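Aim 2 progress update. The chain analyzed this quarter is reproduced below.
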Amino acid sequence: MIAMIFFFYLEKMKTYLLVPFEEKDAVRSMGALWDSEKKLWYMDKPIEELQKYEILPLYVPFEDKDIIKEKGAKWDPDRKQWIIAKHSMNKFKEWLVPPKKKYVSIPYEKRDGVKSAGGKWDKESKLWYFENTIPKEFKSFVKPSF
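Predicted structure tokens:
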């Protein structure tokens, strides 16, 4: 019984696709379906020809949003993140990897400077961090990765 339920669940899973308007008829003929609520194409079973349209998330700092949009990425309001189709990933390589947190141990008095330089507070570790690179003025406060 469990196997049947699991199989039924797998059958109903949707893999969303990012398809240019000009290619909508082609993907429809390959078996893609339209989700009118999300306004995205999807496949409910693996279809090899459609896999190049599978959605990949991007990790984009706010200041890069205009660059990303110009290159063709789309904002997904449900996921609250930028997305692209798998076949266009070469244009977006620098935004495919999630940013690595670089922690700094900052005295309380310097917290406003860290915040204005783009630092973020990690509630769990109770430390400030920067994503990918640390500004020069805070390099002396670097904590070893943990």
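The two ends are 44 Å apart (CA to CA). Residues 1-11 have pLDDT under 50 and may be disordered. These observations will guide the mutagenesis experiments scheduled for the next reporting period.
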